[in-house]
Amino acid sequence: MSLTLFDKKDIKNKSENYSKTKNSKKKEKMKQKEARKQVKKRKKLQKKYKKENIREKNNAFAPLFGYDYTPSYIYSGNRYATILKIVNKFGTNHDGSFGWFVNLIPESNEEGNVITKLIEADKPIDSKKQDEIFKKEVNKIIRGHSEENASKSENEGDKTIKELVVHDVLQASRADAKSKLAIDSFIYVMITADTPYHVSKQLRKINENYKDQINGVQAMSVAGNQEKMFKNLLEPPKGDKNDYTWMSDEFAGNDHAVRRGLDDDTGVSVGELTQDYTGGQALMSLYNSIGKRAVVGAYESSSIYQYDGYDDLTGSSLWGQRIANDATVHGHRVFHIVMNGFEYGVDDFDVEGEDKETKFVCPPSLERDIGRVDLSKGNLNPIEMFGDSVRDKDNKVQIFNTNLNKIKHMFKLMSGRTLVPRQTTMLEEALVTFYRQKRMWTEQPEKYPNELRIYGLKSETVPKMGAFTTQLTDLVLKNTSEKTYKIDDDIRDARHLETVMKNALSKYRAIVNTTTTLPDPKSIEKLQMYYDLSKLSNDSEMMEAQFLNIFSYVMTACEKGDVIMFHGLDKITTETLNVIKGRIDTATRQGIKLVYLFDTIGGSGYSKTEGLEYANLFNTEGLLYQSLDVDFGYTVLGAMTLKDLELYQEKVKQKLTARLQSILTATNEPYQYQIRRPIDLTSVIVQGQFFV
User: Fold this and answer.
1) Considering 247, 272, 293, which residue would you say is the last residue of a domain?
2) What is the pTM of this model?
3) CA-CA 20 to 30 A from 584: which of 75, 234, 404, 652?
4) Residue 556, helix vs strand vs coil
């Protein structure tokens, strides 16, 4: 047996060593925890950098050595830069013609490798914000600069400046009263050089030149804001800058001038840039740029290079086909509703059994993914309704009401537009009764939505229009048998409706009294489907009736991201478009993209002989769009007439310069098109040249 003895000193040392070991372990754990935290943070940054590819870019947006900022300068590697605001003093440069600001572009100095750039970005101020500015802020400015608020120490120079401020603000206020747009923008100058000395020397030279040539303009340094201003240059304007605000008439078409090239990362060639400083090919991402809707408008005189030999082809439909092909490349389908006879097929495609050439050919590889339907042969039961079981489960009432309005409008068309409101009301009552008797509708649809048999029925089980004739006959008999209690007008109205229906059955039985023979809209696998109405062009009323029938079917066939394309929409009246306006709005909300192709821009809008207004780019405001300048992902417009130009300037609320007017009305340039894309302020003129 052994015995170990410890004295107090040994015990104390062991206790201290234990405490040190414990503290050491605790510190080690904390270090490890911090190290893990740093590793996690580094991995997160690496993931972010890998995603953004920041260091691998090594270009102007992300140089290898990065950017460093001081209050007055930016430097990267061995180069220095500064960014300055361009300020135009109140009351000056009012009489400058369009493009006067080109004089703001400074001349660079060779010494010190000086490079100077002028950067301008702008966007229209939101109408609500504009209203707020002119109702509140403008009045504050005017009151603040009034004589009663003048200081005793003010001299004549101070008073003059105040007068100039009030003059400019009042002028803007008058423009606002005329519904002119206010433009929010910034104008910067960026100077880069080898040293800060060369930068400041160039700045002095710029301001001296401004003073001599365009007095009132000054390049102003904004110390401490260099990083923020630099980042502003790398992206489109966001939020409200209000560095430089002007009215659209003073803006004088700046946003219509050639502002930037068209060189999208996923773009396809659409032609050659003209009216541009650099030239070259325009590469545009046609599908991705659509947004909710796009529009192409061009007269029959417009065409695409090397397709102008086909007399029946229209420039707008050629653009439409190029857009459609790009959509299919991105994995989406396109449903074409054709009113203008546009055909797209292979060389040996036989049109309705006739041995004739198609207008032009598509690659054979595309042919197997294309389907065509001749709607002059019917194929659609007007009584049948269509809808998506998931998307439209809350839209049953809208679908029914749209179909009701569709049939009422079809009757109006088949009667030669002779129906009066009293007869339309009687027709609606008869239709509702008919649908109730067929157990497709109920008296309380909102309360009992599950009782509605609106869509998803087998086509062969849906009653045809001929069955509705019986309903109208019963209506006549009812009115006749109750002659004591009915006025003669009711009897005449009922007989008129019956006559319209019987005449339609006699003339258009294949269209009016048919079972739907088209496949279930949800089963369509073709990438592009063409529903041709053009063979009904000699009977415009029946063409419009079939147009209403096919839209509901096509909308149901679409999935989110698919495209409905309207060829020759100017052959449809605004009255007919109004019938499906609600469903058009629903389509955009459901993610279906709409492309409108007009074979006119503003012409042939009104038929004096028939008293009808046919759709064009301008009179469909409120039907197809709310703002021509904002609502379209892009607009493609061929040469306009002078009358079109006046209407166009009204819609965009701008007075364009003589130079721009001459470009946009160059009817001797059949391949010329203006492309505008609001989201990134693209505005270019191209000579249309592409393969479809």
Assistant:
1) 247
2) 0.68
3) 652
4) helix
